[in-house]
Amino acid sequence: MRESASRQRGGGTVRPQASIVAAPRQRVRMVRSSAREQPDGSPFRADMKAVGKLGDWESRTEAKVPAPAEIAARLGIGEGELCVRTVYEFLADGKPVQLSTSWEPYDLTGGTLVVLPEGGPHAGVGVVNRMAEIGITVSHAVEQPEPRQADAEEASLLGIQKASLVTHIRRTYYSDEGRPVETADIVVPAALCEIVYEIPVSR
User: Fold this and answer.
1) Strand, helix or coil for residue 44
2) What is the pTM of this model?
3) CB 173 within 8 A of CB 138
4) Three-state SS at 5
5) String of DSSP letters for 129-185
6) N- to C-terminal Cα distance for the chain?
7) Do residues 135 and 114 lie in contact, with contact meaning Cβ atoms separated by under 8 Å?
8) Res 170 pLDDT > 60
9) Mean pLDDT, the chain, integer
10) If you compute the radius of gyration of the chain from its CA atoms, what whole number of angstroms results?
11) What is the pLDDT of residues 50-88, one digit of tens each?
């Protein structure tokens, strides 16, 4: 809290007025690493726990959504082929810090117990573990990060100003046979998060 100094104006005295200055939100660390895929936990929750915050997420899934051209190209399928789309809001202590929209080919998971990423007996365990349940081994992911400005919807969801700087990560998981099994658009606001990449080194 700070006070403005008394000053003369038009022969009168302006009394000091208190103003409250909001403390900036602490930036949270987002670690991007293949080593953080966990069989029984969430890397996001682990990241939040490391900085003393409770990590959680909200999601909304739609099955049989036609793939737009860009998503189809990333998944190696035809434009308009059906996908399962899941929209996420990732929360730290109940406040949104990251957005993600995930796409999976419907012909890959349709009719199985893992068709809904956040529903059924394997809800919330992540792409790698869900695919393993239907006999698909995920071998690696490719990420393409780039800076851009937040659009109006993103800014509203994240509680930041429109046109604030975000990092847009296009991530695609691949099976050991080279097939894309999931792709996602991840939006991380620079004001709220720092992105750290851990890269394993083999000898």
Assistant:
1) helix
2) 0.82
3) yes
4) coil
5) HHHHHTT--EEEEEEEEEEEE--HHHHHHHT--TT-EEEEEEEEEEETTS-EEEEEE
6) 55
7) no
8) yes
9) 86
10) 22
11) 778 898 999 999 999 999 999 999 999 999 999 999 999
